[in-house]
């Protein structure tokens, strides 16, 4: 048990050691602190497979075994050990102080670690397997062929219905709201092939053509493979609970941060628009007009400017950052007084987004973050 | 809409003249917060019903009474709007009512206007002073005592007393303004005073001559100021009715300068104390209530004060222990931000004068923004509207 456990751990470390350098294709998980962009690797450029299928299968086996060992180590049930549990356990067993999250030890299914690659496309005599091999982009063109096949099938179906006299235009439509077409990079990843922008546009045009036909709901499953669900953003915000005073006056607490300033406020209902910050009136705490405007924005947006009394405390950073922190705190506290539609509007206005900008680090060899030393020609 | 207000206010204007002539009680009907351009209406008729309404200071009065008294932004506003309109507010009305009811055979009452920064203390003081002026009092108005304790270019050792310092420029400036304000009294008041070995004023000379001497000869102007103040003190109670009698109104803005610290340095680079300045010393003597026949109106001011934190606005904080003991007992009058009615009035006044150019400021939303951003503070509101 210990030996196999060792082997499992060793295999993890081996993967981490050699392949930690590669950029792994990250799927739908978006890390909140880092800017949201997907990292794409040029899969087709790797060439035909470096790892054989047997090798991959062996890795999968090892992964499964290692997973069971890990579950036993952590004292959990091996049957119901999910990927999240694996991540948690690895973070516990191998605590890493590295800032780059992608450089930390990771144990994932080999399909996620080893990049998808093309198998050898021709047989021992040199004859290609696929009939479209000599186009250069066989998967892409075969996909186009498939889509066109489906279009033709739907047209035949339409004709059949017309012949029967049952043709109607208002058939069940596919719901497309809340999803988007896959990006070019995502399609490349699926096909393991490079396609150009024009190719991508052509594919999307064909899909739209498919969608425009009345009986497209027959191929709903196929189409939805090429659409990606967007997350509903506003459901992510947790609304602070509305509490009641002994007098029955509603109030709520909220926090906000900006740039190293921390603010926390109490928003009381049935007030008269008094705002006290750190014990002083906001007019004297923020003599600058811009900061008062920042405070005013959430209340004015929701239309409840004279309704609330705000009592706040803020510390750290400078006056602008404090005003920004207070604004975020006020918006969050307002969530509990406001309806769902208003929450979405506030989100779109940017009131609920924490400003991620922080002070940029000073680099060695430079005066500051960006400023360079005086450039001397000689 | 603005035209409507004007017409309404004009018709009421005529109605008011009519009623004044018939000497009956003046009624303003439904006018709650609109302009009231009625220059003839004197302050004797102002009452609580008129809070929030504006009344115009006659141009002649402004020139005479306030050559130096009004806040600089208000002077700019007078120039822009071509008229000086002051809002009637409760602190000023309170002050005027006290002045009406006071007994002038007894020592003068000391009134201190206090409040947060920008709430309108100087304006209330000016309002009350205008009342005194129309009643025919003699006005001694020190527009900003802070100007005497900082930024003095010339500081001469006093000619009369060895340990004191004179400020000739400030003193002569003040004497000039005093002359403009109280011209009609200068020939009436008689005095006699010896104040240097070389120069002396004979008994029976009118005050005007003394003032002229002070203006012309800068060296002795501070002593002249002292002399003037002392004479006025002695003669204010002035038992005789008729020509010689007058009531004295001493108005000091920035009272806390008298007992605070100065930013002036003596020749040996040590800090100057306020007592060592002749002007300050004389004004302090005025503040004592050992004379009769007048009133002392003062206002505190944090904006020009030295070495005081911005959060300080109460008399005890700004005057310090010494000042507070000296000024006790006094009548405190608190001045605060506009309430809703006054804010409405100010807003409508600016609209009427086309001062709020931005179209959004005319809407309800814009008004709410103004309320929030200024927190109904008069000076902040004025600055805000200045660039709208």
TrEMBL record, chain A:
An MF annotation (GO) of this entry: RNA binding
Cellular component (GO) terms are: mitochondrial inner membrane; mitochondrial small ribosomal subunit
GO biological process: what's one of them?
translation
Which residues lie within the region annotated Disordered? 353-378
Superkingdom as given in the UniProt entry: Eukaryota
Keywords in alphabetical order? Mitochondrion, Ribonucleoprotein, Ribosomal protein, Transit peptide
Q: Where in the cell is it found?
A: Mitochondrion
Q: Name one Pfam family in it.
A: Ribosomal_S9
Q: Principal place where this protein is found?
A: mitochondrion
Which InterPro entries does the entry mention? Ribosomal_Su5_D2-typ_SF, Ribosomal_uS9, Ribsml_uS5_D2-typ_fold_subgr
Describe the family membership recorded for this protein in Swiss-Prot or TrEMBL: Belongs to the universal ribosomal protein uS9 family.
Q: What is this protein called?
A: Small ribosomal subunit protein uS9m
Task: Show the taxonomic lineage.
Answer: Eukaryota, Metazoa, Chordata, Craniata, Vertebrata
TrEMBL record, chain B:
Location(s) in or outside the cell: Mitochondrion
Under InterPro entries, the record lists: P-loop_NTPase (IPR027417), Ribosomal_mS29 (IPR019368), Ribosomal_mS29_met (IPR008092)
Q: State the source organism's domain of life.
A: Eukaryota
Kindly list the biological process annotations in GO that this record carries.
Answer: apoptotic process
Q: Name one GO cellular component term.
A: mitochondrial small ribosomal subunit
Q: Which UniProt keywords apply?
A: Mitochondrion, Ribonucleoprotein, Ribosomal protein, Transit peptide
Molecular-function GO term, any one: structural constituent of ribosome
Instruction: Report the leader peptide range.
Output: none
**Pfam families xref list:** DAP3
Specify where it is mainly localized: mitochondrion
Q: Which PANTHER family match?
A: MITOCHONDRIAL 28S RIBOSOMAL PROTEIN S29, SMALL RIBOSOMAL SUBUNIT PROTEIN MS29
- Identify its protein family: Belongs to the mitochondrion-specific ribosomal protein mS29 family.
Entry protein name: Small ribosomal subunit protein mS29
